[in-house]
Specification:
Elements: E1 2-6, E2 12-17, E3 34-39, H1 40-45, H2 47-50, E4 58-61, H3 70-82, E5 90-95, H4 97-109, E6 115-120, H5 123-129, E7 134-139, E8 142-149, E9 154-157, H6 167-188, H7 192-199, H8 202-207, H9 209-226, H10 241-250, H11 258-275, H12 281-293, H13 305-314, E10 318-319, E11 322-323, E12 325-330, E13 333-337, H14 342-347
Parallel strand pairs: 2-9, 3-4, 3-5, 5-6, 6-9
Antiparallel strand pairs: 1-2, 7-8, 10-11, 12-13
Bound molecules: nicotinamide-adenine-dinucleotide and zinc ion.
Nicotinamide-adenine-dinucleotide binds near residues 99, 144, 164, 165 and 172.
């Protein structure tokens, strides 16, 4: 299946969802240099993919969210410059969101921008991070505080990469998929994903993972088409993220995954919404049921509430020192509230 991103400001990106794309990556190459950015885990798992690149043009970074930082950015940029990358060349990112976000930022900044092809290898990257052009890295001040909007020319999604992904990472990817289910009506006026995830067993969902990826990718594409730079509508993709980023920062990006942190964040946002009488108990329980169905609430570390609130204030979704929060308001619908009282915020925390 092919999904086209063509934004109102005329930026294009082509998303292809097809099994076996990874094996024929070279068919997407033309006459220029291709640089591969990946990590050491994928380098070992996918030697045939790596072999399609000149070995001097393969850059493998350390594996882990804690390496999505300034030091690794500098490491990649120096390697690319050492190997004399030119404006017409192209960077290929093979990996999950960490590799994709960093490689994307390198592509957007080196020589003021070279082409980028994303080859996502985690469920999270296939459904979310490789699509829509958000790139960046973390600093000690918070998640993704350095970055750019830079769409990949192509996103090649081959779900056979998921065969080697751990059950834990697969489940974490479902956290972002559930996010789409809870915003689907606001984004695309449909409830297909929500109903599919609610009505089917986990096995049936896994058997239909290409369908899940296609629906998720098209929801994201529709939102990005209307609002590439997150002036308005695109903010709905951040459901659970202001909380989630605080949880990730407080755990030093180690003890909780992004998908788990976002899921816990969605639980908090829903509790806030329920406490504010914006949703009824029935829908609140349905959200919790779905998060539990995919075991996304098993990891609830205890964080200091004051520290969470401080970090939430620092998050870039803060305007005039007021917390800007996206909360569920009806089945598959969300709205942004910009004046949340601190006691309500505190009561929604784990
Ligand atoms: N840019 C965006 O729009 C956006 C959206 C959502 C998340 N993100 C970012 O994405 C990151 C999380 O991405 P992630 O969950 O993919 O994490 P990740 O990139 O760290 O990958 C998770 C783990 O799976 C391993 N892995 C990857 N593919 C594999 C495969 N096919 N087989 C076996 N192991 C494999 C990785 O080496 C890593 O250990 C976060 O930094 C988050 O901020 C960005
Ligand atoms: Zn996310």
């Amino acid at each position: 299946m092919q999904i086209e991103i063509n934004t109102i400001d005329n930026v294009r990106s082509e998303i292809i969802v097809e099994k076996g794309l990874g094996e024929k990556i070279e068919t997407f190459f033309d006459n220029r240099k291709y640089f591969l950015i990946t990590n050491t885990t994928l380098q070992k798992l996918y030697p045939n993919f790596i072999k399609k690149f000149d070995k001097n043009r393969v850059i493998a970074i350390e594996d882990g969210e804690e390496y999505k930082n300034f030091t690794t950015f500098e490491f990649i940029i120096k390697k690319l410059l050492e190997q004399k990358i030119e404006r017409k060349d192209c960077i290929v990112a093979l990996g999950g969101g960490v590799v994709g976000d960093l490689a994307g930022f390198c592509a957007s900044s080196i020589l003021r921008g070279v082409d980028l092809i994303q080859v996502p290898t985690t469920l999270l990257a296939m459904c979310d991070s490789s699509i829509g052009g958000k790139t960046g890295f973390n600093t000690e001040f918070g998640k993704n505080l350095v970055g750019s909007f830079y769409l990949a020319k192509k996103v090649l999604i081959d779900s056979t990469f998921l065969d080697t992904l751990s059950d834990y990472q697969y489940k974490c990817g479902l956290g972002e998929v559930l996010k789409y289910a809870f915003i689907e009506k606001t984004a695309s006026n449909k409830t297909d994903l929500f109903n599919f995830l609610l009505d089917n067993t986990k096995e049936k969902i896994r058997d239909n993972i290409d369908k899940i990826i296609e629906i998720s990718a098209s929801i994201k594409a529709q939102v990005v088409n209307k609002d590439r730079l997150e002036g308005g509508l695109r903010k709905i993709l951040n459901l659970g993220h202001t909380y989630g980023h605080a949880f990730e920062t407080l755990s030093n990006y180690k003890n909780i995954s992004h998908g788990e942190a976002v899921s816990l964040g969605i639980k908090c946002a829903s509790k806030l919404s329920y406490n504010l009488n914006l949703i009824d108990n029935n829908y609140y329980q349905q959200i919790i049921f779905m998060l539990n169905k995919f075991e996304l609430l098993n990891n609830e570390p205890k964080f200091d509430k004051i520290a969470i609130i401080e970090l939430m204030k620092q998050d870039k979704k803060v305007v005039n020192n007021k917390i800007n929060l996206l909360v569920p308001t009806a089945p598959c619908q969300v709205e942004l509230f910009d004046n949340i009282d601190l006691p309500f915020l505190e009561a929604s925390l784990p």
